UniProtKB/TrEMBL annotation:
InterPro entries: CHIT_BIND_RR_consensus, Insect_cuticle, Insect_Cuticle_Struc_Prot. This is Cuticle protein 8. Residues 1-15 form the signal peptide. GO terms for cellular component: extracellular matrix; extracellular space. PANTHER family: CUTICULAR PROTEIN 50CB-RELATED (PTHR12236:SF79), STRUCTURAL CONTITUENT OF CUTICLE (PTHR12236). It comes from Amphibalanus amphitrite (Striped barnacle). The keyword Amino-acid biosynthesis does not apply. It holds the Pfam family Chitin_bind_4. One of its GO terms (molecular function) is structural constituent of cuticle. Keywords: Cuticle, Signal. The keyword Signal applies.
């Protein structure tokens, strides 16, 4: 009987208490539906450029064109060893990227002749710091309290 009374009192108390406050989230992202992705139409393009600077020796070129589905291109660059690397490539969604690489010239590694000649390494002379000598010890004078103040009687 006591258990029944306690349960009844708790049920009444729970019914009278207000529900806890849970605010709505400030941001609710839109649901993601992968099948509703926008697919952009493929667009054909073509471009090319080339640089041949005799002063610095920079020499490279690139050419690429696409019909919207297949890409074809070519680029060439002079390598540091003196050879020219040529790459012809095609790329599409089915065959992936396919490249044909060729080289012109022979690899050469000429000796580097430079006007700069570094001086031989010569360490600075070693001068050790002087040995440590502590300052002479002078103890502080003994503490002597000031005379106590004694008021004079008038």
């Amino acid at each position: 009987m006591k258990v029944f009374l306690v349960a009844a009192v708790l049920a009444v108390a729970a019914a009278d208490s207000p529900a806890p406050y849970h605010p709505a989230p400030a941001y609710k992202p839109a649901p993601y539906h992968p099948q509703t992705q926008y697919k952009e139409e493929a667009r054909p393009f073509a471009f090319d450029y080339a640089v041949n600077d005799h002063y610095t020796g920079t020499n490279f070129a690139r050419n690429e064109q696409s019909d919207g589905h297949n890409v074809q291109g070519y680029y060439s660059v002079v390598l540091p060893d003196g050879r020219t690397q040529h790459v012809k490539y095609t790329a599409d969604h089915y065959g992936g990227y396919n490249a044909e690489v060729t080289y012109d010239g022979e690899a050469a590694y000429p000796e580097q002749h430079s006007a700069y000649k570094p001086a031989p390494y010569k360490p600075a002379p070693y001068h050790p710091a002087p040995a440590y000598k502590p300052a002479p010890y002078h103890p502080a004078p003994a503490y002597k309290p000031a005379p106590a103040y004694k008021p004079s009687h008038y």
